[in-house]
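Researcher: Here's a chain I'd like modeled. Treat it as a single chain, no partners, no ligands.
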Amino acid sequence: MSRFFSKTHASLTPYTPGEQPKDRKYIKLNTNESPYPPSDLVRQRVASECGRLMLYPDPDCSVLREKLSEKLGVDKEEIVVTNGSDEILNFAFLAFSDSQHPVVFPDLTYGFYSVFAQLYNLPYEEIPLDENFNIRVEDYIGINKNIFIPNPNAPTGITLPLSDIERIVASNPNSVVVIDEAYVAFGAESAVRLIDKYDNLIVTHTFSKSRSMAGGRLGFGVGNRGLMRDINTLRYSTNPYNINRLTMEAGIAVLDSDSYYLENCEKIIATREKTAEELKKMGFEVLDSKANFLFAKSDKISGSELYEKLRRHGILVRHFEKPRIKEFNRITVGTENEMNTLVSVISEILKER
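Model: Modeled as a single isolated chain. Structure tokens:
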């Protein structure tokens, strides 16, 4: 760092994104992207919008929010559209937490939560998952702290039933509860329908995973109008044009061709289940994922060795160094052919040992 870098941020540990290597062509199963391209309608609409790039985008995202409100069954004023779901998570940390309002989240979860807490110098606590990597609901009941929970969780893929989410929200009426539903389309139940019942609930979504738009950076939050006004106060104070014209048009086209994406989600779910069974046959422990990835380990090979050997075979997965999960690898669900290749290569690696 330079001598000008503020001491306020000198100890910050930044988020580490998944590899995006350029040295060769890989089967890329490390960053939870969709293996399927955008719909034809998305490509057509984005191409036609290029001719208007000289104009600022609509800061209100009116058309996109209207379509989201119809799809989700909520009021347009209960939605804020952001640059990926990371942006609304960032705003939520900034808007509702301070030295008097601490934050809690699981100890094994999305890595950006601790980064945001450190960035804003917030008191925070990481609550351990249980021995089976489940979120212990009782640990969050009535704790009177702002809560961030991904459902399904990452990197485990394990989900909480909606009844447990509601218990957490209801028991903390004076704190904000954020349910991060980045992977909800792959088998979990959304908490969006609870937002009119609880004024302390925010639900965040992304187009990156189930809607093939990781490169487009589009997300949104749903919640009580007052909470969304708070978020918009920060958005308009930092970057009111946070969604560019091409991404906005792509998002509208995604919703206009939603059946295509829902079919892709079903394909991913089927491939996930098939791959999990194949890994189990080889002796892997595979957690019960309801996301577009699997979290797996084997007592026949260490997590780091499997990661390295797969990389040498041109397959990327995600390996973490935290002691409790260092023997696991997170494997994004690709196409059926990609996953068949993965299983075949792993089988060969194990035979070589």
